[in-house]
Amino acid sequence: MAALSAVDLYRFFHNGDAETLALRGVSVSLAAGEMVALLGASGSGKSTLLNCLAGLDEPDGGHVDLLGQRLTRRPEAERARRRAAHVGILMQSHNLIPVLRVMDNMVLVMTLANRLDRPRAPGHASARPAQLSGGELARAGLAVALAAAPSVLLADEPTGEVDAATEQQVFQVLAAQRAAGTAILIATHSEALAAKADRVLRMHDGRLVDV
Question: Is 47 a member of any domain?
Fold first, then answer.
């Protein structure tokens, strides 16, 4: 059984009479303990795909299964409950609530997942997001995404604003999660990060393409 799978996802956006086809029949599957890199230019559909996989957005066609159960076409409350329990999310704009300290962000994620425990405090755990540098934000955001030990991690440009040393630190965390059995999908522009993944998928114009 795949940890996360999607079959024939379509997503359309409308602006007046104009229609944008953000996803065009995308199918993807992630196994436990697998790290997959998703490459593609800005606007290729990577973020839209991650939003649909996480249940943050509903596709117009196709479906998503999480741990063998349908996630698509479920009430928002049910999607949110299953997402909190099983999916760690690191979005491109980070996933930290600005008014909360890093540690409080972690506790909130664990509470929503009903897995409240003493979290392992990252560096700068008592700081608020505005007090952190780009590299510190990336590491803190990843710590929050992983706070509840999710089965699936979806990360959108986790190293997009960091230097090479921080990118290596982020990869070490991801590698440890992969070894622990987490299914990981990373949308990235970093060829260096993609080279360390088990598989590489490439998107162009809303589709997965062969290269």
Answer: yes
In whole angstroms, give the CA distance from residue 109 to residue 143.
10
Pairing mode of beta strands 183-187, 199-204: unpaired
Q: Which domain holds residue 195?
A: 31-58+75-209
Predicted local confidence at residue 121, as pLDDT: 64
Q: Residue 8: enclosing H or E segment and its boundaries?
A: strand 4-15
> What pLDDT digit, counting tens, does each position of 42-86 carry?
889 999 999 999 999 999 999 999 999 999 999 999 999 999 999
The residues, ordered by sequence, that sit 6+ positions from 106 with a Cβ below 8 Å of its Cβ are 119, 125, 143, 144, 147
Can you give the pLDDT at residue 60? Answer: 95
11, part of any domain: no
Assess if residue 139 is contained within a domain. yes
The CATH number of whichever domain residue 171 belongs to comes to 3.40.50.300
pLDDT exceeds 60 at position 211:
no
Cβ pair 166, 19 in contact under 8 A: no
Q: How many domains does the chain have?
A: 1
* 3-state class (DSSP) for residue 83: helix
Predicted confidence at residue 92, as pLDDT, reads: 67
CB contact set of 15 (below 8 Å; sequence gap of 6+): none
Planar angle of CA 32, 36, 41, nearest 5 degrees: 155
Is 201 among the domain residues? yes
Q: Give the pLDDT of residue 159.
A: 79
